[in-house]
Request: fold
Amino acid sequence: MAWIYLSIAIVFEIGFALGTNATKGFTRLWPSVFTLLAAAGGIFFLSLALKTLDVGVGYTIWTGVGSIGTVIFGALIYKEKITPAKLGSFAAIIGGVILLKIAAGI
Reply:
């Protein structure tokens, strides 16, 4: 269940990051409400995942995969550019996530 909770937390993390951009400095009500709820949901599900997973593994995967998702969806929603440097960074993050899962014995 820990990996399912972590996956849900990652979805909330991506929503939080994208929502933060949409708030325009927390001057827009509904994007601000969405962002705060997404932040709370992400932390809640991360805390459930960390009942089983090591904090170093869980938190690193949460932020790493959340970052990749934010860049991808930022490109789709906000028309941000994905550069070769970003692609290389994706590869490094994905490699790190794989190594962390191996190190965690999963």
